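Incident log, structure service

09:12 report received: a user says their structure output differs between two submissions of the same chain.
09:20 pulled the input from the user's history:
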Amino acid sequence: MCAAASCSARTAQCSGERKKTGNVEHTAGAFSQLKRNTILSILPIVRGCEMFCCLKNCLNGVLPAQSVHITKTANPVQLDSSHMGHEVVIIKNGLRACGTGGVLANAPLVQSKSYFEVKLQQSGHWSIGLATQQTDLNQSVGGKDRESWCLNSNHLVLHGGDVIYRLDASKGSAVPNGGQNSPGHTVPGTVPVDLSPISAPPAFSSVASPPGGSGESGLPQEGDTIGVAYDHVELNFYLNGKNLNVPVLNVRGTVYPCLFVDDGAILDIVLDNFAYGPPPGFERILVEQSLL
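09:34 re-ran on a clean worker, output below:
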């Protein structure tokens, strides 16, 4: 009886060991199957990468290099066809003025220090400067009314019909002419304005000839570039990057760049990519954006 009990116990123990061994073998088999399935699932990806690398190496130097095209946003500032004289013609995407009369730009000078340039493409009667929207744009000369401040082709700086400065090449500087900027001046000057162009200005040998313009006389001529800088205190004009030293004070109101043309004059306003660049601290005209 004892022998029978001992035999039953051994049989149960053997059965338990076989069951445990079977579980281990089953687990090992399942893991092997999972490993095999995983390998089979990623094998196409590996083969695809190998084929891509091979194809890339084969086509290296054949396919054109990929490039990212960056679209440059056009400058929104230009000459304003809604604020120009009846006989003014605006072309070249709003950057060139010809005909007869005046035209304003479409953006006021609201920033602290702004700068723009004007290329004298063709001679004639012209005026360059600043004006409010109340100026008379049907006249051919800027600075004749109280709403404009302009340098003119006859080498006069005008405001309200007064001569503020007269460019004098023989003296190498601008001469105040009794206008609003002269020391001790209290009453606006009444100097008559001669609008006829100066055909043969005296030589001004102290100014070297810059690239892109004549510059030999020290006075603006066809092909030159006029720079205009405004900081809400002074309005200054530059000739081919050289300060003409004709600071205009008391510019009032909301002002815009203005061009006046007549007698065949052609002017191009330059609002970025300047030929000579702004003075230190100045920058191109920025459009005022309202905060929503």
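09:41 both user submissions now match this output. Likely a transient worker issue. Closing.
09:42 reviewer note: The chain has one helix and 15 strands. Residues 2-59 form the longest helix (58 residues).
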